[in-house]
Amino acid sequence: MHTPLTQAEDLNALVQRIKHWGEELGFQQIGISDTDLTAAERHLHDWLDKGFNGEMQYMAAHGLKRSRPALLQEGTRSIISARMDYLPEPSAISKQLLDDPAAAFVSRYALGRDYHKLLRNRLQKLADKIAEEIGPFGYRAFVDSAPVLEKAIAEKAGLGWIGKHSNLINRRSGSWFFLGEIYTDLALPSDQPVSNHCGQCRACLDICPTQAIVGPYQVDARRCVSYLTIELHGSIPVALRPLLGNRIYGCDDCQLVCPWNRFAKLSAESDFKPRHRLDQATLLELFNWTETEFLQKTEGSAIRRIGHQRWLRNIAVALGNGKATDAAKTALAGRLSDESEMVREHAQWALQKLDSLHIEPELPTI
């Protein structure tokens, strides 16, 4: 194990070096917290008691390991929390896409390479740096890979505050960033949390397309577009389908409207740049992907986890929310014989919805 660091100045100096190494590795900020998540544990249990987790049973699993770090990783005394910006384009472009019913909107975090591996590799390098400095020590790195209350931990570590939409907000950088953690047996001095600066703002509550933010700091996942398009395995509730618009994977509305995101910075990470034109593809283009194409073009992407059937399910709904063009109706009709009952059902719903509209004349190509 590591040589004990007992002098306060030694620990403080180590924390400063950890933060410096983090910046060198591409993290925008590093913070340190203790392991007391009592308040977050109460909030989690209240959320679960209301059934807001829907089919996400993993949020209720693992007993108290999610809110008591030492139960998940024995010996944990401190947590190193890191954030990394991912915004690939100015928000004005995202807003334009949402206004175009023929465009496919994919949550900005999923446009590039899957962040899990990138962040975990960087966290491992940070742990290696620490070990070079003090010798072997006990630690475990996490990036959405275990029951970890990452936002509550990051808030305690001073990386920002949890906003009314339940995302972490940084006063100087907005909320377009990923989080990762290193649980460690080092007794590091903690950073001070920052104060909440949401004030009386209700922008995120008011903009939510499905009104999933049922109150400040209370998100009913069962209504959330991200849950419906990513986590939900079966049919999307019929009453919610028209509210999804052209959002086919996740939703960024609450971030796009947040006034603090005027300070957000574009990511310098090449891996977070859009791949396979997902930032400008049309619904019809993506609906025509075969399963082989889907697997090929989502390799190394967070999108692959939903599989081809849910991909088609989501796009069928989006097409049904668009204009009643001949091309859209033809594409949907072609999926009425799909091997997946779920795809057939959503394509049928979309066709019926478009049939209730007047057919939009299509401009000839020149």
Automatic annotation (TrEMBL):
It is found in: Cytoplasm. Its EC number is 1.17.99.6. [4Fe-4S] cluster 1 binds at residues 198, 201, 204, 258. [4Fe-4S] cluster 2 binds at residues 208, 224, 251, 254. It is an enzyme of class 1 (oxidoreductase). Pathway: tRNA modification; tRNA-queuosine biosynthesis. Monomer. This is Epoxyqueuosine reductase.
